[in-house]
């Protein structure tokens, strides 16, 4: 059974910094890999400099694209894990589609910069992941080219808001501009969704 695409190497390399760079890869697709837990294990960072499309379908055990060097992927589905963290970057990505991903509690961690998805135009999430929210306010504010957002999470009892307020914010009245290019918005099967946006600011 395949559990990681790039497994651990020799013990002699444990203390070396490891970065994987895909300079020409444009389309990455995972489908029907029930035992796959991570794309790369014990790697410090991954760079997809030319990636434009990332599709993830029916990965029942998948937890994260990158597991840091000397860290450990747990098989406990209750361990919170982000699909994308600060160690993975694909600044050219235009489309991200996730289907059938059940073990992820966050799509992206707080370490991810919105500039890493500056060109993202289409985001489709159709799965049963246990996300409490989809974006932080700073992440949503950075997605200036997003045109299509589809979210359908089967029997989701966790997501209460699409855009969550961050714990730290500057005092005083501020204006937030989210998704200025958005043309299509679909939300479905979010049984406990209470609000689209929870921020203590004026919106545009």
Automatic annotation (TrEMBL):
Organism annotation: Cinchona calisaya
Alphabetical list of Gene3D superfamilies matching this protein: Ribonuclease Inhibitor
Protein name per the record: Disease resistance protein At4g27190-like leucine-rich repeats domain-containing protein
Keywords: Plant defense
Sequence ranges assigned to domain Disease resistance protein At4g27190-like leucine-rich repeats in this UniProt record: 96-198
Signal peptide coordinates: none
